[in-house]
Write a structure and sequence with these properties.
This protein has 184 residues and is mainly alpha-helical. It has helices at residues 9-36, 42-69, 74-84, 109-116, 169-180; strands spanning 124-127, 155-158. Helix 3 packs parallel to helix 4 (109-116).
Length: 184
């Protein structure tokens, strides 16, 4: 993005939320520190807390910059952080919404993430979305709510976990295409 380009309203709202909700955490934390610390130790405890916070923020930023420099996307960085905390992460490996109802080739970002955090991959196939309110069939997505009637049948097939060493984009695309069947 050029230096002169303005931030989008969504980005500005995200920054505002970060500042606002960060305050919801920090203000009670400092109040608790002041209540529970001895008056003669209070200034040193708050200073030490500030120094450690700054140190951890700088270390985390340097680690993130290194991973971004190696080609990991920002979305991949968030997925990596969530996986390292034991969270479940859902990835749409095509990298875009289909215009035709068919798969685009799976992209390698998912493989880069599991190389750094080896976890099993659970393939999932959505069924019945093409032509529904959420698809781009005949018009932009979410523009025609009654395209297939009031209630549109959709499904989700969840396959068995694929070990990390077998989880290549081509192999996973084959599994997902087979579990989706011909039910667009």
């Amino acid at each position: 993005m050029p230096a002169s380009a303005p931030l989008s309203p969504g980005a500005l709202l995200a920054l505002l939320d970060l500042g606002l909700f960060g305050g919801f955490f920090i203000v009670p934390l400092y109040a608790l520190i002041q209540i529970r610390s001895a008056p003669e130790q209070r200034a040193r405890i708050i200073a030490a807390n500030n120094i450690l916070n700054a140190l951890f923020m700088v270390c985390r930023a340097l680690a993130a910059a290194g991973l971004l420099g190696e080609g990991l996307s920002i979305a991949g960085l968030f997925a990596l952080a969530a996986l390292s905390e034991g969270e479940l992460v859902a990835i749409f490996p095509e990298g875009r919404i289909t215009d035709t109802g068919e798969f685009y080739p799976f992209r390698p970002g998912m493989q880069r993430i599991i190389e750094r955090t080896p976890v099993p991959v659970i393939p999932m196939a959505r069924q019945g979305l093409w032509g529904s309110f959420f698809s781009r069939k005949d018009s932009p997505a979410m523009s025609n709510p009654l395209r297939r009637g009031l209630f549109s049948r959709i499904g989700l097939n969840v396959g068995p976990a694929v070990p990390t060493e077998e989880a290549t984009p081509a192999h996973l695309q084959e599994i997902v295409a087979g579990s989706r069947g011909n039910w667009n």
